[in-house]
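Before going further, learn to read the protein records used in this course. A complete example follows; check for yourself that the lines match position by position.
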Amino acid sequence: MAPQHRLPFEEPTAELEAALARLEASTDPNQDHSEEIRRIRRELAALKRRIFSNLTAWQTVLVARHPERPQFLDYQELIFEDFTELHGDRAFGDDRAIRAGFARLGDFKVMLIGHHKGRNLKERNECLFGCAHPEGYRKALNKMKLAAKFGLPVICLIDTPGAYPGIGAEERGQAQLIAANLMEMSRLPTPIICVVIGEGGSGGALGIGVGDRISMLEFAYYSVISPEGCAGILFKEANEQTKAAAAEALKLTSRDLAKLGILDDIIPEPLGGAHCDHREMANNLKTYLLRYLRELSDVPIPELLERRYQKFRRIGVFEEGLAEAARELVQGQTSARQAM
């Protein structure tokens, strides 16, 4: 089924999809369109495969933001059973951008946490398009600690442009709450699985993004800043050209991050993106989650925490020679000033 919203680079598929829809809707008993339908389906699949195997970084961002892309509550309904939502942070309120609750995945009982953007205008306004307030991150951490108390693994589904950038959020300690989550998740005594299912924007994503397994859907993105924000800072304007240049420079796609050693896995999406087939995407995600749960369930907690620590210590490259040269340069400049 073709999505209702078509991205600019998907336009070449429009004619084939329209022809396929006409033939499939035909009710003439005297005409057999089966061979023609099979031919168009093959051509359409080949065209989509060619388009989506060569997406630019900016096009990947557009796919990650597709309005029909499955969200937290879609995966909750398609993958998990017996979901019981838990509300509130015991301090301020119940942030609707982050959802949390007990759930069951196969034979595993888990704590499910994730961003939800909303599927219609009313829900999006309620969820602030997935941009959480401090109380959302406090709620998430409280539920993680509850999961650890009962020995339940934590699954975090990340999909946010970033934490809410309002004055109220800053007044209530947005940065401090995210920092606290990073520290507490790094030493939480239970398995944690994090998957970026759409947008992984800045500290808003990191606030529930420290875990034993870090994965992304194929056409999601994960970045320290949005391409628009980066373009505004570096180029002083955010037009199509500067946004595309910023997205390329940020190395935010799953392929880039896998090369940099950030990810454990890239979870494949259906042909044309997750928005084309929610059920297939949910089945793919379920397969990976169950594999991670089986891998982590028997690891002793001390070993689990040490592996988690070492996992994040290995991220990045340290140029010790350059650092030493910089120190010598500074010492030389200091000595020269003192001699004067």
Remarks:
- The chain has a mean pLDDT of 88.
- The first strand starts at residue 81 and ends at 85.
- The radius of gyration is 23 Å.
- The beta strands are 81-85, 98-105, 108-115, 154-160, 192-201, 213-217, 221-223, 265-267.
